[in-house]
Amino acid sequence: xxxxxxxxxxxxxxxxxxxxxxxxxxxxxxxxxxxxxxxxxxxxxxxxxxxxxxxxxxxxxxxxxxxxxxxxxxxxxxxxxxxxxxxxxxxxxxxxxxxxxxxxxxxxxxxxxxxxxxxxxxxxxxxxxxxxxxxxxxxxxxxxxxxxxxxxxxxxxxxxxxxxxxxxxxxxxxxxxxxxxxxxxxxxxxxxxxxxxxxxxxxxxxxxxxxxxxxxxxxxxxxxxxxxxxxxxxxxxxxxxxxxxxxxxxxxxxxxxxxxxxxxxxxxxxxxxxxxxxxxxxxxxxxxxxxxxxxxxxxxxxxxxxxxxxxxxxxxxxxxxxxxxxxxxxxxxxxxxxxxxxxxxxxxxxxxxxxxxxxxxxxxxxxxxxxxxxxxxxxxxxxxxxxxxxxxxxxxxxxxxxxxxxxxxxxxxxxxxxxxxxxxxxxxxxxxxxxxxxxxxxxxxxxxxxxxxxxxxxxxxxxxxxxxxxxxxxxxxxxxxxxxxxxxxxxxxxxxxxxxxxxxxxxxxxxxxxxxxxxxxxxxxxxxxxxxxxxxxxxxxxxxxxxxxxxxxxxxxxxxxxxxxxxxxxxxxxxxxxxxxxxxxxxxxxxxxxxxxxxxxxxxxxxxxxxxxxxxxxxxxxxxxxxxxxxxxxxxxxxxxxxxxxxxxxxxxxxxxxxxxxxxxxxxxxxxxxxxxxxxxxxxxxxxxxxxxxxxxxxxxxxxxxxxxxxxxxxxxxxxxxxxxxxxxxxxxxxxxxxxxxxxxxxxxxxxxxxxxxxxxxxxxxxxxxxxxxxxxxxxxxxxxxxxxxxxxxxxxxxxxxxxxxxxxxxxxxxxxxxxxxxxxxxxxxxxxxxxxxxxxxxxxxxxxxxxxxxxxxxxxxxxxxxxxxxxxxxxxxxxxxxxxxxxxxxxxxxxxxxxxxxxxxxxxxxxxxxxxx
Length: 918
Hints:
By secondary structure, the chain is of the alpha+beta class. Strands 11, 12, 14, 15, 16 and 18 form a 6-stranded antiparallel beta sheet that branches. Helix 7 (about 165-185) packs antiparallel against helix 8 (about 190-200), helix 11 (about 250-260) packs antiparallel against helix 28 and helix 15 packs across helix 16.
C-alpha cells in the first residue's frame, strides 16, 4: 500500500508544483496587500461586487434549500435567472466551495475562490503541455503553466468577473480532449468537456468553440492528408453536437430567456448589424480599452521571443510555418481589428474589451512550447547560480511590492506605459540572448527573470489596481452595507412584503442580500419591456439596471412596499422610522458616516387587488400621470384623478426657471425634467445630466445617486425620473430650477404634478380589511382573495412572463401582462385561490434533448464495445462538405472582410474626428 502511495505521489508531484507556485504568488499578493482572509481589503471590484456576489448569495440559498436555482423572488418583482445560471457560471464545480462559506462572507471569499481556479488553471495547462510536448524541459513546462494561470487576462479580469475564470481553468482540458479526438478518434472525453463547458458558461464556451472550430480547421487542412478530412470532420461534428446536446437542459432555457429579454434585443437585421461591426475602427478608443488590449500579452515576452526565433530558425518547415501564421492570426487579430473582436463577442461588449483574451495566452504558450521543445536542451546550471538568481528575483519582487504599496493613486495611461515598457524591455533582452547564445542558450538561466516579470503584473492587478479610475458602481462595500443593515436592523425576509432603498446607497442587487423583495435588479436578463414600463411608472432607467429611485407613494403601495431602508432621512409624511443604528464597524473609505435606518411605509395596499375585467383591455399608455389615474380609478371607482397637473406662474432668466404654484389640499408634489432630444435614452446621452439644481422654498432638493447620497445635481445615471419635492397642505410654494448653462433650457422640458394624499389615504383605508392571503415557495405563489361581479380580475405585482403556469381554483388559466409589472388573472365571484408556478421556458424540452442525447450516447458506446460502428463513407463526405463550407464562411466573414474593411474604417473615423475638431 505504501509503495502504491509513493508511486502515486511521484506521478502527481510534477503536476502539483505549477499549482504550488501559482498559489504562492497569489497568497503572497493577498498577504502583502492585506486582502481577505489576511486583512480587511478585498479582491473584488466592478461586477464581482455588484452582480457576482449577490448572485452567489442566491446560489448559496439554493444549495441550502432556500431558493430555486431558476427563479429569484427578490429582485425585479420576480426574476427568471435561467440566463444567469450560465452567464455567471453558477453550476461550476468550483462553486461547491461556496457551500462551506458563511453567507455574509461570500463577497470576501471571492479571493479564495479565484485563487483555487488559478491553481487549477496551472495544473490543467501543465497536463496539456505534458501530454502534447513530452520532451519539453520540465522547468519550461512548469513556467509556461504558471504563465497561463497568471496571464494578463486572468490577473486583469479575475478580480472583476471571477465566473469567467471557471472556463479559463477548464479550457486546457477541453483542448486536451480535442487533441485526443483528432489524434485517436475517441470522442467521449471531448463530448464531456464540451457539455461541461456549456453547462458552466454558455458565453465563454461559445467563444471557445469558435476557437476549437478554427484551430481544428488549421490542423486538418494543413497537417492532415486529404483522405483523413472526412473522418476528422465527422468526429468533430458529432462530438460537438453530442456535447451541446448533453448541455441542453441549461442551454435551451438560457436561449429562451435571452430571445425575449432586454439583453437579446440587438435591433436591426443581421446584415445591418454585420455592416456596423466591420465599420469599427482598428482598435477601440479610450485609455482603459488600450490598456486591456496590451495587457493580454503581458508576461508572455519570453514566449513571443521564442516563437519569433523559432519561426526564423525552422523556416524550412513551410507547413508548420503556415500553421503558426494561422494560429497567430486567430489569436492576435482581435486585439487590433475591432470588427473581428466584435464578432468574437457576438456583436457587442461593454467594459471588458477582450473577453476571449485567455485564448491569446493559450495560443502563444502552445506555440512557444512547440519551439521550446525543439530549441532547448537540458543543460545543467550551477546550484550557486540558481540560488543567487532566486535571491535576486525575490528581492526585486519585494522591492516592487513595497514600491507599489507606497505609490499614490495614478492612472491607466501611466500604467500602460509602465507595463508596455516592461514587456518591450524584457522581449528585447530575451530576443538578444536567444540570438546571441543560439544552441548554447540555457533556458534555466532566465526562469527567475520570467518569474519577476510575471509577478509585477500579478501583484498590481490582483485586487483593485491603483491606476484604475473607478466609477461609483465599480467599487464599494454595497454587499457589506446590505449585510450590516440586514443584521443590525433585523430586516425580515419576505418575497411579497417588498422594500425600497430610495437613496440607492445599496446599489441595485441588495434585495438578494436582504432576502427581501424589491423592484431593483441588475443580475439577469429582464423581460424586454420591464425596464420601459418601470420608467413609465416614474422609476429611473440606466443601462440594464432596474432601479428603486423615483416612483411615487402610489406605485410603492401598488408593489406592496411595506418598508424602506435608507441612509438619508425619509419624509415622515410617507414613512415612519422603525429602527436605526450608529456608525459602521467597517474599515473602509466607502463606509457611510451615519449608518442605515429602517422605515415602515405609511401608505400600504394589499399584495394583490381586484378590478373589473375590462381593465385588462385598457390602453395604459406611457404617461405616468395617466397610468396612475387609470389604476387609481380601477381600484377605487373614483373617477376624479389621483394625480393632476399644476397651474403656475413662471419667471425665466438665462439659467433659472422660477415657478410659483398653489397646492390645493394635501398633496405630494413630483417633478420631472426630460431632454426633448433624448426622451428614451439613458441620462448620460443628454447634456442635462447633473446640470440642474432644484430648490423648493429656497431649500435645495436632494438627488441621491449611487455613490453619493448627498448629491443635489439632477438628473443622474441612477436618479433620472420622478423627483419627490415634498408634501404640502393648501399652501403656496416656490420651485426654482438652476441650470449650469443657458443652452440647457432649450432642450429641457419641465413638468410638475401633485398626488392627492387624502385620496391616497382613503384608498388605503378602503383596502385595509380586504382579504388577501399570500404564501409562497421557492418558485411558486399562492394568493387567496375574493372576487365579485364587478371586480372579477386580479392584479398581482409580479412581472408576467411565459414561464408562469397560472391556475385559479385548481384550473389552469391564461394570465396576461398588465402595465409591464403586473400579472393579470380573470377570477370568479366569491373565494379564489390563485396559484402561480414558475417553469422556465425550454427546461423540459432541454432536459428531453439532454436525456435523448445521453441515451443515444450510451447505446452507441455499448454497440461500439461489441461491434465497432462504421460510419458510411457518404455520411462522412457530407460532413466534410458542410464543415468546409462553414469554415470558409467563418474565415471570410469573421476575418477576411473585417481585415480588408479595417483600414478605410480607421481612416474614416480619423476624418470624422478632424472634422469635429474643426
